[in-house]
Design goal:
The structure is a single chain. This protein has one domain: 6 Propeller (Neuraminidase). It has helices spanning about 1-15, 270-275, 285-290, 325-335, and strands at about 25, 40, 50, 55-60, 65-70, 75-80, 85-90, 100-105, 110-115, 120-125, 140-145, 155, 165-170, 185-195, 195-200, 210-215, 220, 225-230, 235-240, 245-250, 260-265, 275-285, 290-295, 300-310, 310, 315, 320-325, 345-350, 355-360, 365. It is mainly β. The chain is about 10% helix and about 45% strand. It is globular, with a radius of gyration of 21 Å. The protein is built from 4 helices and 30 strands. The strands form 8 sheets. The chain has a 5-stranded mixed beta sheet.
């Protein structure tokens, strides 16, 4: 009886720990797709892909150094790079006209690099660190959305209306000046996910973008280091999350080539790069689309890129936004892995209706389109 009892416990242990599951690549579009795999293990390998996003609008000179943006309440909200003042802007998705200017009284734009959001707040990352790699005042401004509906074209928020998150990298112990663009501790990309802010570094030395996270509440923190992504020399410039299981990183290299890294199909833990599919998709060069510095999803699979003005020799590309869609890369993955997505925000493809759906926590709902 004792042996039977132990055997029963072992059987239950195996069932709850994936007994009988097969690890492998579960994306049919990958070169090494394994149709027998039941647990995605981040091993998918993809052939090179090229993508030309449609240009939507050129932006006014006010947004000449657009460096981060989000989509909320029917508008784009974005900010300029360092040295442009502690201002951010609401601008029209159809023609780029600025609808509202918001200033942070007492704030400063040392090097604002990206924006993120949750249901209550905007998060503005003042964490650019490529000057000498030795900043000790890395911070994120927390701006409540409740103030942004106030009337008027210009809004000044007092320092009692916004909060600040301060942080440091746990593995940065040497703060000696490195010189320009010679540090591992620069950052231009941030998302909000599962109650935390996630940062992805701009890899000036080495080939890896490192993933850190920290709480989204005001305070002073040492960030938690997670996994890393081999970008092969491409510099990560922005990030956003569409559906709960889909992250996009924008990038360019020092030769002017632009690309995105699409990360999807990861599990519910924070190690996106270890468990998710990692797909590099080549875009036109900076000469053609501008200096790629911002990205935002407008629904689970569609959104917009934002580019700074790019000048090199005889070339002068105006600041702009361009629309993208990710469904062409994800549709086969969602078709094949529908049972894997059951957390709020997860997506799937409904083969009966031919539509994408998202899980709202109770039921699957059709993903609405955008204009």
């Amino acid at each position: 009886m004792k042996l039977l009892f132990i055997a029963g416990l072992w059987f239950l242990f195996c069932l709850t720990n994936g007994f009988g599951q097969t690890n492998g690549c579960t994306d049919p579009q990958a070169d090494n797709f394994n149709p027998l795999a039941t647990l995605n293990d981040g091993s998918c390998i993809y052939s090179p892909q090229n993508y030309i996003p449609a240009q939507t609008i050129n932006l006014p000179s006010t947004l000449g150094e657009l460096s981060g943006m989000v989509y909320w309440n029917g508008k784009f909200w974005g900010h300029n790079d360092g040295g442009n003042g502690a201002w951010f802007y609401a601008f029209d998705t159809a023609n780029g006209s600025v609808k509202k200017v918001i200033g942070l009284t007492g704030g400063s734009n040392n090097d604002w690099e990206d924006m993120a959001q949750d249901s209550l707040n905007f998060y503005i990352g003042d964490f650019g660190n490529n000057g000498n790699g030795n900043r000790k005042n890395l911070r994120i401004y927390v701006v409540p959305k409740e103030y942004l509906s106030e009337a008027g074209d210009t809004l000044l928020l007092g320092n009692n209306q916004y909060k600040i998150i301060q942080f440091s990298y746990p593995d940065q112990v040497d703060f000696s000046p490195t010189g320009s663009n010679k540090t591992r501790f620069d950052c231009e990309a941030m998302i909000f996910h599962h109650g935390r802010l996630h940062l992805f570094t701009k890899n000036w030395i080495g080939n890896y973008s490192v993933h850190y996270s920290l709480p989204s509440l005001p305070g002073n923190y040492s960030a938690t280091r997670h996994d890393s992504l081999n970008t092969a020399g491409f510099l990560v410039t922005a990030a956003d999350i569409g559906a709960e299981d889909q992250i996009m990183l924008t990038s360019y290299n020092q030769g002017g080539a632009c690309a995105i890294f699409l990360v999807y199909g990861f599990d519910s833990g924070p190690d996106y790069f270890k468990t998710g599919n990692k797909r590099k998709i080549n875009l036109p060069s900076a000469i053609q689309i501008g200096q790629l510095e911002a990205v935002c999803y407008m629904n689970g699979i569609r959104g917009a890129f934002g580019s700074e003005r790019f000048r090199a020799g005889i070339f002068d590309t105006q600041q702009n936004t361009r629309r993208f869609t990710t469904d062409q890369w994800l549709v086969d993955h969602y078709r094949h892995n529908q049972a894997a997505f059951a957390e709020p925000g997860m997506m799937r493809y409904n083969t009966e209706t031919g539509q994408f759906e998202f899980f709202n926590g109770t039921a699957w709902q059709q993903l609405e389109g955008i204009e």
